[in-house]
Amino acid sequence: MASTLFLATENPFYTSHPTSLLFIARARPNLKMGPIPLCVLLPVTVLAVVAAVAAEGNAVDDEYTWPQWKMPLVRKRRTVPLSAPKFSAHFQSELSGTCGIECQDRLPSPSLDDLEQLLSYETVYENGTRTYTSVSVQGLSEVTAFSRNISSNSRHKREVYGTDTRFTISDKQYSTKYPFSTSVKISTGCSGVLVSHKHVLTAAHCIHDGKDYLEGFDKLRVGILKDKSRRGKGGKGRGGRGRRRKGEKGKEDVEEREENNEKGDRKGKGKGRKNRSRRSVEPEKPSFKWTKVKKTQVPKGWFKGVSDGLAADYDYAILELKKSPKVKHMDLGVIPSVKKLPAGRIHFSGFDDDRPGNLVYRFCSVSEESKDLLYQYCDAKPGSSGSGVYIRLKEPGKKKWKRKIIGVFSGHQWVDVDGNGMQQDYNVAVRITPLKYAQICYWVHGDSSECQLA
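The line above is the sequence of Inactive serine protease 35; the predicted structure tokens follow.
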């Protein structure tokens, strides 16, 4: 009995749980009366261990669960007409002058008035008219914990990678299925992601250079992948058989295997036979179904300090489509820190210029983060800017996993890291903060009451 009590008090599974402490407290008086029967001791001990393990499991599980936030509200104050844009700007594939992490640390925290100015926005309609809407922000104090959770411990200079880690999703069997089907192509040469049945999230610099809207904006369109195959042809080449190009095998399902930490040969020989069957047919490439844009919305924060460089932390915009495509969209999510997630990985797919007509998927770990930006080394080429950056976590109280967009890939940028004018190059994504979530959600729904929880 003495040895049993010693193990109970020394083992953390016991001493950290109230059930075991209660057992020990009650056991001490009984020592004078004689030993406790083993049939009583064992069930209580087992219960203590099970309860402790369950508590530890719940703590670990929380790391894989989407946090629930009460969001601030962005409400419209006033809308006034503006003169029509000139549509004279030229697209910039690389931005410069962005204030980096150390540079941002030196800046004073914006006041409520400043934030309301930054979140006010321009709307351009398909007929060329333009308006300016001022906004008010409510409930900001309830999300102050978000900014305190950001951790930045190191900085790395971006380097040229030796091995290209991107995956071409060329087969319609995958590229037209969720989550890849949420990726769209913007006619100005960027990418975007469907965030509702008729709204596309993309980078602001894909439609505006900070001074004016891009050439061709008045004919802005969004391309959505569709299956162009015809019945009876099946994509076969000469002789009725085709082969995958080298390096294509198994790339399309790499996201599911990576996210679930699965090995490619888990299913053994059966899966090998299935792959050989797939290789007997040339993958069918999808084409685009183009849809006109009804209106666009860009935050005034994107116009801030144009003479001193563009503000990457507001490099996002919403495009409302004239027709609603019958494609599943991806919801927005807010996460306080990507680096603190178990894997710390992000994912995004876009239409890189060097692989025309193909969707390109990649994933990588976030190397550094600030309140507004994510710095990472995902391999990317021009054309992928505007892609939706997402992660995959469990829904609260459920075992089901769900992908949500936590950022917008802004692209390769030259960053003023220390605020002294010295430029370094990085791959940067704009993170979805509670305020940005509130603004984008308001743009999509037109009613801030729909955006109170994330």
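Note on the example: DSSP finds eleven helices and 17 strands in the chain. The CA atoms of residues 416 and 422 lie 6 Å apart.
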